[in-house]
Amino acid sequence: MNLLMCGIIGYLGKGAAQESLIDGLKRLEYRGYDSAGVAFHEGNEFSMARETGRVKNLAESVHKKASSSSLGIAHTRWATHGAVTVSNTHPHMSQDGKFVMVHNGVIENFGTLKKFLAGKGISFVSETDSEVLCNLIAYHYSELPEGEDRFIDAVRSALPQCRGAYGIAVLCLDYPETMIGARRGSPLVVGLGEDANFIASDASAFVGRAKEAVFLNDGELAILKGNEFRISTMEGQETQAISHPVEQISEEVELGDYDSYMEKEIYEQPKALENTLRGRFGEDGTTAKLGGLEGHEDELRNLDRIIFVACGTARHACMVGEYLIEKLARVPVEVEHASEFRYRNSPKAGNSLVIAVSQSGETLDTLEAVREAKTKGLLTLGITNVVGSSLARETDGGVYQRVGPEIGVASTKAFSSQACLCAMLGLALGRMRDLSPTDGQAIVDGLNKLPKLVEEVLQKGDQIKELATKYSKAEHLLFLGRQSLYPVALEGALKLKEISYAHAEGYPAAELKHGPIALINPECPSVFIVEGTELSSKTIANMQEVKARKGPVLAIAPQSVEIPPEAADDIFRIPDAHEVIRPILANLPLQLFAYHFARLRGLDVDKPRNLAKSVTVE
Ligand code: M6R
Q1: Which of 146, 248, 307, 316 is the most buried (most CB within 10 A)?
Q2: Is the CB of 411 under 6 A from ligand 1?
C-alpha cells in the first residue's frame, strides 16, 4: 500500500501551465518531498515528467522539455509505504492513456478495486492506490455513453466506490478544457485568477497568481471548464461557492533576505504575536475577549473539564495551557495525544469541552479526535492558524492564530501563538470564575508586553549561535524544566531532534534522578529552563547534581534569578516577565539553538528528512 500526504496543484488557463505548476509545487513541498511529477495535456496525448527527490530535480527536467500546454496537474509526494521510485511518483496515467490524476490521501480498499480492475484486463505499473483510482475512473468512462457529462459522470461513478481519503485533480484526454477536483478527508481549494484557475492542496500554491480561493467541503467536486468553474456534490447538486481573498498572504510566503523559512518565522514572532493579541481584550482591561467563543459563555462558565487534543508541537502548547488554565481558572485540564484520544473511550465527566489545537487545521488525528468528541456530544473548539481549514469548519467555535503562513516543517511562531491563546483562554475562563480584576489586569499587562519582550530575546540571536556552536558536537542532549516550563523542555528537545537528528529528550527537572541522570557524562549536555519562581532554587539544585557528574549545563533563566557560577557552564538570560508569557520567552532561545545547531551540521532545516508539514494520514 502507498499512503500519501503530499501536495497537489492543477492549472487551467490562458498561458503555459509549466511555471505556475513548478512554483506551486515548490510552495507545497512542505507537504512532502520524496518525489515530484507533472503531466500536461498536449492535445492528443499527455506528456509527463517525474523525478525522485526534491522539486528542483523535476524543475530541471521540465525546463528541458518546455511544454506550452495550458492545462496540467502536478504533485509532490510524501511516502510512508511503497518505495520512493519514479513509477510510484504521481501523476498516474490510466492504462488506456485517457486519464492522468494526482492524489493526496489513501484509498483503503484499493486492493479489492485493483482485483476488480485486473479482472477487466487492466494491469498496473506502480504499487500505488492512486493508480487504481485513476484506472477506476477510466473504467467507468469506458462504460458510459458519449456526451458532455461523460468525464464528470465517470468521476462521480468511481469515487463512491472508494473507502478512505482523497483530494484529487484529474484530466481526461477527450476534454482539453476541463479539470476536475474532488475531496474527502484531504484538503482541496480552488484558486481563481484573471488568466488561470487552479486546484490545489492549499492556497499557498497559487499565491500571487489567484485572487480568490474557494475551499471545498468533504464530498464536493470542483469542475473547472475554460474560465468557468462550479462546485457540486457527488450526487450532482450545485453548491454555493464562498470565496476568500488570497492576495494578502503573497508577501508572507516569500523568503526575502532569510536563508530558510524557519529562521524567517522565528524572527517574525513579534509581529505574529501582535496579530494574535490584537483587539482581543475586554474594555475594562481585565480579561480576554475571544470572538470565536461568543455564544458559548454559559457552557464555558459551567465547565467541569477541558480536554486538549493535538499532536507534536501543538500538543506542547496545550500542555503550557494545562498549567496556566488550571492555575487561573481552576478547571481540570487534560492534554491528550489526538492519536490516542480518538481510539480511547474517555469517560464522560460532567460538562467537558474538547479543544483541538492545530496550526494547519488538517492534521488527520486531530480532526478525527474532534469527530470522536462530537460523536460523544461534547462541545468542540478549535485553535488553528489556517482560515477555512477543516478544523475551523468542523468545530463548534474557535480562535484563529493569525500568524500568517508557517512553511518551515519545524513549528515555531505557531507554538508561540498557541501558547499565547491558551493563556488568553485561561484568563477569560478565570475571569468568568474567581480570578480577581487585579490579577486579570496584571495578566493583560503581561500579555501586552509579549511582542516587545520577544523582540528583545531575538535580538540576542548571536549569543545563541555561539552556544549552539559550542554544543553542536553533542549527539545526546537533555532538556529540563518544571511546571509550565516542562512542556518547553519537551518542545526544545523535539525541535532539536526533528531538524538536527541529534538525540534529545525533555523531562520535568525533578525526574532526572529517576533515570535520565544515568545518561549524564561530559558528552551529554543538559539544557535547564529555570522558572523565576520559588521553584528556581530546586531547579538550580538539579543543575548542580548534573555538574557534580561532569555533565555540561546550559541554563536559560530570567534576568533576576541568581545562579551560582558552579551550577552552569553557560547562562542565557531572558527578561523577567509575568508567568503567563514566560514559557513563550523561554522557548525562543531553544528554537534558535535548534536552528543554528542544525545549520552548523549543514542540514536543510525547512525540510528535515522523513517529515512533512501537515500529517494528513494516520
Ligand atoms: O498542523 P499541526 O499543528 O496539527 O501539526 C502538528 C504536528 O505535526 C507539528 O506540530 C509537528 O510536531 C512539527 N513538525 C513540530 O515542529
Answers
A1: 316
A2: yes
b (16+ CB within 10 A) / e for 176-192: eebbbbbbbbbbbbbbb
Cβ of residue 409 lying under 6 Å from some atom of ligand 1: yes
pTM: 0.78
Task: Say whether 613 is catalytic.
Answer: yes
Task: Decide if pLDDT at 43 tops 90.
Answer: yes
224: β partners: 179, 229
Q: Point out the catalytic residue in the list 6, 162, 311, 420.
A: 6
Q: For 471-506, how does the pLDDT look when each residue is reduced to its tens digit (9 = 90+)? A: 999 999 999 999 999 999 999 999 999 999 999 999
Whether 6 is catalytic:
yes
Residue identifier of the C-alpha nearest atom 4 of ligand 1: 358
Distance CA 101, CA 73 (A): 8
Ligand 1 contact, 615 CB (< 6 A):
yes
Atom of ligand 1 lying closest to residue 391 CA: 4
What per-residue confidence (pLDDT) applies to 2? 35
Is the C-beta atom of 262 inside 6 A of ligand 1?
A: no
Compute, in angstroms, the gap from residue 249 CA to the centroid of ligand 1.
Answer: 21
Which CATH code for domain 3-252? 3.60.20.10
Cα gap 529→284, rounded to integer Å: 34
Q: Which atom of ligand 1 is nearest to the CA of 418?
A: 3
Per-residue cell: 243: 470565496
Query: CA-CA distance, 605 to 594, in Å (whole number)?
Result: 9
548 Cβ partners below 8 Å, 6+ apart? Answer: none
Query: What's the rounded mean pLDDT across residues 12-38?
Result: 92
CA–CA separation, 274 and 263 (whole Å): 19
**The CATH number of the domain covering residues in 255-448:** 3.40.50.10490
Please tell me the predicted confidence (pLDDT) of residue 304. 94
Domain boundaries, the chain: 3-252, 255-448, 459-611
Distance CA 618, CA 384 (A): 19
